[in-house]
Structures are given as structure tokens and as C-alpha cells.
Design a protein that fits this description.
Layout: E1 18-20, H1 40-53, E2 57-60, H2 73-86, E3 91-94, H3 114-118, E4 129-133, E5 137-138, H4 147-150, H5 158-165, E6 168-169, H6 173-185, E7 189-194, H7 197-208, E8 217-222, H8 232-241, E9 247-252, H9 257-267, E10 270-273, H10 290-304, H11 311-317, H12 327-334
Helix pairs in contact: 1-2, 9-10
């Protein structure tokens, strides 16, 4: 991404798109009972509350009545239908893991099988987006957490730490290509959740060979443990690697969330918050609800002079419903240099 003169002026920036992640699949309901919805009605109402606070994208996981993360796609269908009925314009983004929470005590947190995750393309009513990981990768979500982050929670137990420290993401090349193909065929946007530049480079290569004719709507997930750490050097390198047509959201965990989101607001990028990412105020004096986190970002963005996008504007920014026909069109629309033609020498550029 190129930051020309005036890039930091709010009048030259897109309005801010706020993604909320209020379902927190790594937590047990007892970890934060005031803000972890369990019944279907409460899960639907949580989406409504987040929308009313200013979030226009919701990252969806689902719980069963016993509080455990649901592996049943029928529960996703039910939640999506419920949210659609109450806040029809909100962008519904289904988490591609479905639920990575351990099914029983002593088990390791894990993503579901390739075939099961492919079925996300068949959800009805269909979501606007499904997130996708690129390249199989370690996802140790507790590696950069400290004792204070998990104090008094299920992640603070030896069992909880062990379960989530050993989690990996299966996302091999053939699965990724097939998954994007199925999502696109059903009019569902692929939202890339990327750990580092090497994964972004894989996405670009897939676009160049015509296996990924979609807008580059992505999140940089800086959570450590196999992903980038949320420091300024990693951020600057990743942002520089993103083409100008990309729509980039920043994500991290725990007390890193607010500082990274402030950087995103200042830079003209987009933000994500919610209890899936963090449950504490910055001084850890108390737990902070997803709605409070959204309201905080709305307030800060206004201080920066940057307006928050409404749902219609967020859909335009996120290019919901847009798909491309060819690799050349995909590269041009996303801001990548064109591929080299046979015999062409030197660097390539769009005329």
C-alpha cells in the first residue's frame, strides 16, 4: 500500500469498518458470563447490540445450550437466519474453523476436517463472507499471552493452556483452491485471515494462475504462536506488501488490541474487536464487553476525525457481491502488477 501525501488525513480515508467478534469460542461461559451468550436468542441479540453500537461486520461462531462451541452447521443456519431477520444489512462473516474449541476435557483445540469446512459454502441462508486460512500453520493462541491475561479463566488452567497451545490450522493448497471455488460459486466472499507475508504471497500466486478471482479482502492476524507478532516492524512490512486495491483489517489479541486498532484508525485501515480477541480493559481492572469495545473505537475514531461506516457503506468498502472473471482482471482490480507475458523483460506495470 502506498501512503501518499495526505494519506493520514481523514478526508482522504475510507470510512472505518468495525468488525466485532463477540462469541469468543476459546472461552467458557463461566469465564465472562455477563458477555458470553449461550441461548440462541441471546446470541442473536448480541449481534443486534453490536450493530447498534457501530459494528457493521460480525465474526460468527455458535454455542450449544451447554455452552460448548457448536460443530453443527444447522446451528449456524439458525443463527444466521436470526441475525438476518433482526439486522439485515450487517455483514455476516462466518469463522472458517466452525469451532476450534475442544469437544471434551483433555482434548486439543483443533479445526474441523476439510470436508466439514467445505460445507460452509452450503449454509442457508448464506453468509456474506467465510474466513479462510492459507497454508497449514501453527495457531498457538496463548503463546504471547501472560498470566494476567488468563487469570481466573479456563485458559489459565494447565488443561486450557495445553489445549490451545497445540492447535494447528489445516489449509493445504488443494483444499484452499477448492474452498474458494465453492464459496465463489455460491456467491459467498472469501475473507483471507493471514498470519504473515508468506501467506499473502501464496494468495497472490493463486490469483496469478486464475485460482482465486476475488477481491483481496483480508485481515492481518498478529497473535504470535505461528503468526506474526503485533509489532510495528511486522505491521509495516505486511502493509507495504499489500496492494493498493486490498481492504485490510488488523487483528491481534489481549491488551495489544486497542493500540493496534488505534494504528489502523490513524492509517486508514480497518479494525476488529470483541471478546474473541480480548476481555480486559487496558489496566485489567475489569473485563470489557464487546459492545464497550465497539463504543470505544467509535469514540476514538471520531477523535481522529474519521467517520465510521454504516452498513451500506461497509458493504461497498468490502466489495460484497463482487467477483472477477479472469486472473488479469483480478490482478488489476486488486492493485497487483500484471503477470509477465511470454518473452517480456523487465518489471511489469499496468498502463
Amino acid at each position: 500500500m502506498n501512503f501518499l501525501d495526505g494519506s493520514l488525513w481523514p478526508e482522504n480515508q475510507q470510512k472505518l469498518v468495525i468488525t466485532c467478534a463477540p462469541y469468543g469460542p476459546e472461552w467458557e461461559p463461566s469465564d465472562f458470563p455477563e458477555d458470553i451468550p449461550v441461548t440462541m436468542e441471546d446470541q442473536i441479540q448480541k449481534a443486534v447490540d453490536c450493530y447498534n453500537a457501530g459494528a457493521t461486520v460480525i465474526h460468527i461462531h455458535v454455542r450449544e445450550l451447554d455452552g460448548k462451541g457448536s460443530k453443527r452447521l444447522s446451528k449456524f443456519n439458525e443463527l444466521i437466519a436470526g441475525i438476518r431477520a433482526r439486522v439485515p444489512d450487517m455483514i455476516l462473516q462466518v469463522g472458517g474453523s466452525i469451532s476450534f474449541a475442544p469437544e471434551s476435557e483433555g482434548e486439543t483445540a483443533k479445526w474441523l476436517s476439510d470436508d466439514t469446512r467445505h460445507m460452509l459454502a452450503e449454509l442457508s441462508p448464506k453468509p456474506d463472507q467465510v474466513t479462510i486460512a492459507i497454508n497449514s500453520n501453527q495457531m498457538n493462541v496463548v503463546e504471547q499471552m501472560c498470566a494476567a491475561d488468563v487469570a481466573g479463566t479456563s485458559l489459565g488452567t494447565p488443561e486450557g493452556m495445553r489445549a490451545y497451545s497445540e492447535m494447528t490450522i489445516p489449509a493445504g493448497p488443494s483444499w484452499v483452491e477448492e474452498h474458494i471455488k465453492r464459496l465463489s460459486a455460491n456467491g459467498i466472499q472469501t475473507h483471507f485471515q493471514l498470519a504473515n507475508i508468506t501467506q499473502l504471497e501464496t494468495v497472490e500466486r493463486n490469483m496469478r494462475r486464475g485460482a482465486c478471482n476475488v477481491p483481496l479482502i483480508l485481515t492481518w492476524v498478529a497473535i504470535g504462536g505461528g503468526f506474526d507478532a503485533p509489532n510495528i516492524y511486522n505491521l509495516a512490512n505486511f502493509v507495504r506488501a499489500c496492494p493498493d486495491g486490498a481492504v485490510l483489517t488488523l487483528e491481534t489479541s489481549m491488551l495489544n488490541v486497542l493500540p493496534l486498532n488505534m494504528m489502523a484508525i490513524a492509517m486508514g485501515l480497518h479494525v476488529r474487536c470483541g471478546i474473541e480477541d480480548n476481555i480486559w480493559t487496558q489496566d485489567r481492572s475489569r473485563k470489557m464487553t464487546t459492545v464497550e469495545q465497539i463504543e470505544q473505537l467509535v469514540r476514538i475514531s471520531k477523535e481522529f476525525g474519521r467517520e465510521v461506516a454504516n452498513a451500506k457503506e461497509a458493504r461497498q468498502i468490502y466489495k460484497i457481491g463482487t467477483f472477477y472473471e479472469t486472473a488479469d482482471q483480478t490482478l488489476a482490480k486488486n492493485g497487483f502488477a500484471p503477470s509477465r507475458k511470454p518473452g517480456q523483460k523487465g518489471f511489469t506495470q499496468h498502463a
